[in-house]
DNA sequence: ATAAACCTTTACGTGGCGTAAAGGTCAAGT
DNA sequence: ACTTGACCTTTACGCCACGTAAAGGTTTAT
C-alpha cells in the first residue's frame, strides 16, 4: 500500500506539515517522489513513523529520535535508561515543588513568613537537572556500541501488551499501598486489605504460600535497598509501611 | 530587601534574560528603575515571580499566567490548592510515562533472543531470567531451589494465561463485529459497543490512546488489504463496518 | 469544462527564551 | 587616578517543532 502526504497524515494522526517537516530535516523521507513531485510513502515508512511517534510521545527531541531510529549502532536501551533517569529527576523536582506549595499555603493561612531563599527551593532543582542534561549528552555519546536489531518494531508492541497485563496486578497493589499509606495505620482496614492483595500477588509467583515466607519477604523489603527503592519510588515510605502491614497481617506485630 | 536582575535571578534560579523578557512582555515589571537605568525588584516582585514560576511549572503559557496573577479578584490560597492538585496529576502522568519507558526497556533488552515465531516464548524466558538475576540468589538462599523452580514454572503459566486472555478479548471483538455488522448501522448501539471494545483491545498495546490515532487505524483497516482480509475473513465486510463504526465513535463521521 | 480537493515550495509567525554584540556603570585594588 | 572585572543596558538574531498563508501545479468527480 502506498500513501500520499494526506493519507499518511490521516493514518497516523499527525499533520501534513509535520510530514513535510520530517522530510525536510531528514527524519522521515518518502519512499519515492512521483512524476508530479508528490511524496509517496510505503509500508516501511509507516512503521518508521510509528516508531518516531512513539519516541516523540516519550518527550525525545527530533534530533535524538533521528539518531535512535536511523543509527543501527545507537544504544536504544541506554537512551531509554537515560530518559528514565531524567523523568525520575523531573518527578522528584515535582515532589519538592509540592512541598513548597504546601509550605506556602501554610504560611498564607498561618501568617508565618517564608524566607526569600526558601521560596525557590523547588525551582532550583530544575536548574540542576538542566545542567545534568548538558553534561549528560557527552556521557550519552560514549554509549552506543551495542548493535540493536532494527526489525523488532512490531515485536515491541506485542511485548508491551504482555508486560502491561502482567503489571496490572502490581498496579493495583501500588494503588492500595498509596491509599493505605495515607492512613498511616499499618494495622488498619486499608493496610490489611493491602497485605491481602500482596498475598494474592505473591501467590501468582509462589506456589506455596506461608505466613513465614510472607513475613520473611517483608523483612527483605526493608533490609534490601533494591526492594526499598522499588516501593519508595512509587509511594514515599511505601516499603516500610508495606513491611509493617504484612507483619500485622501475618500476626508478627 | 532590594534586588538587581542578577540577584533576583540567583535567588529564583531563572536567568537574567528571563527576567528582562518578563519585564518586556509586562509579566513582571521591576519595582523601579534607578538613575543608571538598572531594574530594581522588591519583596512584592519576589512573591509575584514565585507565583509566576508555579504556574509556569504547571505548563501554563506566560500570557495566561499574566491574566491569573494580575487579576486582583483572585483567591491565592484556593489557587495554590489547585496548584497542588495539578502537580499531583502531573506526577501521576510522569509515573505512567516512566512505566512505559520501563516496559520498553524490558522488551528491548530481551530483543536478541526474540525471533519471529518464538518472540513470545523468548520474552517469557527473558522475564524468568531477569527475575532470577535480580532476586534469585537471595530467594534461593532463603527458600531453597525447589521453591524457586516451582515459582518459575508458575510464572511461565501466568504469561501463557495472559496471552490467552488477550486472544479471548480479540475473540469477543469478532463476536461483537458479527452482531453489529448484522444490524448494518455503524452508528447504532451495537456498533458503538464494538468500537469501545476495539479501543479496549487497542489500549493493551498502545501506551497512549488518542481518537486521532484510533481513527487513523480505522483508515488503515480499509486502506491496507492485509487488515481488510484479516477482518473480512471472519466477518464479510467486517473491515469496512469496523472502520465506519470507529469513525462514528471517534466523531469523524 | 469546471470545481473541489489534493499536491508543491517558499516564507513568515509562534513561545520562551539563549546567546552574542556593543556599550554604560560600579566597586575594588593598585 | 586608573584600571580591571563584574555587573548593567538595549538590540537583534537563533532555536525547536511546527501552524498558517500565499501562489501555483495536479488529480478526480461531476
TrEMBL record, chains A, B:
Residue ranges annotated for the HTH merR-type domain, each copy included: 1-71
Listed CDD domains: HTH_TipAL-Mta
Plastid recorded as keyword: no
Cross-referenced Pfam families: MerR_1, TipAS
Superkingdom of origin: Bacteria
Keywords attached to this entry: Activator, DNA-binding, Transcription, Transcription regulation
Matches recorded under InterPro entries: DNA-bd_dom_put_sf, MerR-type_HTH_dom, MerR_fam, TipA-like_antibiotic-bd, TipAS_dom
Name of protein: MerR family transcriptional regulator
Organismal lineage: Bacteria, Bacillati, Bacillota, Bacilli, Bacillales
